[in-house]
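Single-chain item
Fold in token form
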Amino acid sequence: MTKSCPPNPKAVPEPTTWDARLARCLVTPLVGTPVTPNHLTTLRLAIGLAGAYYLSLGQFWMCTLGALLIALSNLVDHTDGELARISGQSSKIGHFYDLACDALVTVLLFLGIGFYVAVHHPSMIVPAQWLGGIAGVAVALIFFLRMRIESMAGKPGTKQASMAGFETEDVLYLLPVVTILNGMTPFLIAAAIGAPLFAVYVAVDFQRVVRQTRRRAQATHGKDGNDFQAVR
């Protein structure tokens, strides 16, 4: 049995977003080394957890450090996928691990912001921790529904909106700026309103994909039945 040659990184289409392109450049030297995409996913998780923790402490400079770590975690989040693509190490388990880490980091991110805002605005009508929890739960629901959509419609079914090389999630790169400008409170309120609304949109899209999948299955079943009758 002949051993297959490793994939040629140059043969893999170039990413369309700027952070993914940077991630591709960073991980290309790792092809053929013991470093795997799961290692990078774990690194992203560790950085994200540290960022969420520092956000929750309620101190300005610790919050700024946490925001920087979250932005770095968002960049590292692209490295595992890029390494998997150019090295041929993609797997369902690795993809699920990546999605689970994304969900966990994002939920804890909003909870951390909630605790930070609660320290500086303890008398809000709705406790800031609750707002962080609402945004976090909504984001977790979005991740779960997108995972289900991807399992039924494939990767293109969960492709994010992008423009000029940026995606929706790239707003996290602005988090350090929001922190420095003392904009965490309006950012949290906007997330507590916007995340549930977007979760509703994703839920509607999920129902649409479910209906399309059922129609395709029924059409295929009907066609197979007709073919069987024709053979008889």
Observations:
- The chain has seven helices and two strands.
- The first strand starts at residue 162 and ends at 163.
